[in-house]
Amino acid sequence: MSAILKTLLCGLVCCCTAALAQVPPPNEAGGLGDPTRPPAALAAPGGAVAAGATGEDGAQSEAAAPRLQSILVSREPGGRRVAVINGEMVRQGMKIGGATVVRVGETEVVLRRGKSLETLKLFPKQ
Question: Which pTM was predicted?
Fold first, then answer.
């Protein structure tokens, strides 16, 4: 290579390196984060709202209402029944957010809080 070409190439590399050093990482640039990361309300263990989590309106949520997301029922008689509530997998008898799972049906889950029962439907009426 000629000396002029080497000088130009070296200058180009130095300019590109300096320009890239000025670009902040994606998580610092305008709030761009990991698009696959779950919302803060689901990131805390047990489906509880993470400290400092805010809702869509910017207000801090006190407690996340239980939200039934999925149900898995085995085809075998007496097989396992698993539900996903607020991102946490639960079975009958387990506790989630201060409630106990009473029953896991094919399209609904029944929770007990004290003496009251709450039914979470997989497909709520609209």
Answer: 0.50
